[in-house]
Amino acid sequence: MAESSRPQPYQPGAVSLFFVAKAGVFAAAFWIWLLVLVLRTDSATGLQVLAATGTITTTLVAVLLGARMALQHNAAIRHAEVKKLLVDISWNAFAAAGNAETGGKVVPFPTAPGDGEWAAQRPAADRVSVLDLGASERNGGRERGDRRRQPPRS
What we know:
Mean pLDDT: 75
Low-confidence stretches: none
Oligomer: single chain
Shape: elongated
C-alpha cells in the first residue's frame, strides 16, 4: 500500500532529543567525576558532595526529560490516529448522506433525547402527578408533620 499524502503529525524531535542527550551527557560526566573523586580519596569532601548532588540532579533530569519525550511521542501518535478516525467518520457520513437518495442505508449518529421526549419514553404506569401523591410520598416516606397535629395525651 502506498504512503498517504497526508502531512506527518507533530512528533517531538530534534529539540527534545537534544535536551535529553545533553542531560545524559552531563549526568555521565558527573558520574565519572564522582567515581574519580571516590577512588582518589578516603574521606568525604565538599567536592564529593557537589559531584554526588550533580549526579543525582542530572540523572533525574535526564530520566524525566526522556519520559516526557516518550509520552509526547505516544500522545502525538494517538492524536494523529484520532484525527484520521474523525476524518474517516465524517467522510463516510458525508458519502452515506449523498447515497441516501439511491436507497443506501444511512445510520444516523445517536443523539440524546430532549426533555420532552423522556416522558414519552416512560410507560404510562410510571407517570404519576405530584398532586396524586400523598403527604408521606411527597416527603419521601417521612411523616414528621403528623406527630405535631396529634392531640395532647392526658
